[in-house]
Design goal:
single chain, Tyrosyl-Transfer RNA Synthetase, 2 domains, mainly alpha, binds tryptophan, two-stranded parallel sheet, Rossmann fold, binds adenosine-5'-diphosphate, about 325 residues, three-stranded parallel beta sheet
């Protein structure tokens, strides 16, 4: 199957991102054709600082490579490096009823949160449709908030296909219901926008500080503790083997240790879990040219597919010299 995913280059990644998304991507690349791009044009709808956008873009590539995306298996590129996507975006706009975009929850939510509604923010789903349709993607793994965008993509493709024949593959979204939702240090869903994250790539000292701030019940040291509703335990379970998990449960039940001990244990586990990724990241930071080469190679491969698709599409709609 051809699977496509767009990553928002939004800065620091947290352990919720890893267990809720990145880990699945890394395993998807083994049995599928994975297309992964860094959605810098989408980021532009809200991020207007050039230095930060440039830095976030390369940083996203470095982070995903460090966490297991393998450029020998996955085509990885930067969205803006394949200009055909903007060509298709405009063409698809003519097949997108206003009502379809006016109903988009994501747009309404962003405006409700106080973001200035510019036109690009409004037409964001059309660019996303172009991302998906340009490469004949079959599957789009998404979080629940992005399902509607894939539905909009299908609606646009159906409208186009009705006029011009079955030229676009209709994509399906894939929501992994079993995927973990990790709590943040305050117990609410971990999210950058809530400021409650535990970051993947941070110093050991900062990690100790973040895990140290996890909110827990106050119970005397010698008392047994409940692991069921404990935020530390809810996070720790992702980093432990099943034997280690049982041991930790026993430590909770036995009493004699405070939550501070469990937080330190969690910190150790997180730190060790990402050791290899940290090493790779340091390597890529020192070898940025290699990262640029990977992205350039990805762009070349994506561009070839995009160019061929656009020839067919432009031919079908009458936008092609030599065919008039
Ligand atoms: P954030 O909420 O921090 O801004 P994003 O919206 O950028 O995160 O999410 C990127 C990916 O990480 C999405 O696939 C999303 O479902 C996943 N994700 C984000 N937070 C969590 C979490 N707390 N638990 C599980 N998955 C998460
Ligand atoms: N909108 C997606 C997000 O915010 C990013 C994205 C852009 C995307 N284009 C895409 C995801 C195409 C999948 C396919 O997470």
């Amino acid at each position: 199957m051809r699977v496509i995913t767009g990553i928002q280059p939004s800065g620091t990644l947290h352990i919720g991102n890893y267990f809720g998304s990145i880990k699945q991507m890394v395993s998807l690349q083994n049995s599928n054709e994975l297309f992964m791009f860094i959605a810098d044009y989408h980021a532009l709808t809200t991020l207007k600082d050039a230095k930060q956008l440039r830095e976030n873009t390369i940083e996203a590539a470095i982070s995903y490579l460090s966490l297991g995306i393998n450029p020998a298996k996955t085509i990885m590129w930067v969205q803006s490096d394949v200009k055909e996507v903007l060509e298709l975006y405009w063409i698809l706009s003519s097949y997108t009823p206003m009502g379809l975009l006016e109903r988009a929850h994501s747009y309404k939510d962003k405006v409700a949160k106080g973001k200035t509604p510019n036109h690009a923010l409004f037409s964001y789903p059309v660019l996303m449709a172009a991302d998906i349709l340009l490469y004949d993607s079959q599957i789009v793994p998404v979080g629940k908030d992005q399902i509607q965008h894939v539905e909009i993509t299908r609606d646009i493709a159906i409208k186009f296909n009705n006029d011009h024949g079955e030229l676009f593959t209709l994509p399906k979204f894939k929501v992994d219901e079993n995927v973990a939702s990790l709590p943040g240090i305050d117990g609410a869903k971990m999210s950058k926008s809530y400021g409650n994250t535990i970051d993947i790539f941070t110093t050991e000292k900062a990690l100790k500080k973040q895990t140290g701030k996890i909110i827990t019940q106050s119970v005397a040291l010698e008392e047994p503790k409940e692991y069921e509703n404990c935020n530390v335990f809810a996070l720790a379970k992702h980093f432990l083997t099943s034997d280690e998990l049982e041991e930790l449960k026993d430590r909770y039940k036995k009493g004699g240790e405070g939550h501070g001990h469990f937080k330190l244990y969690l910190k150790e586990k997180i730190w060790n879990y990402f050791e290899e990724a940290r090493e790779k990241r340091a390597y890529y930071h020192n070898n940025r040219d290699e990262v640029c080469d990977i992205l350039e190679d990805g762009a070349l491969r994506a561009r070839k597919i995009a160019y061929e698709k656009m020839e067919i599409i432009k031919d079908a709609i009458g936008i092609r010299r030599g065919k008039r």
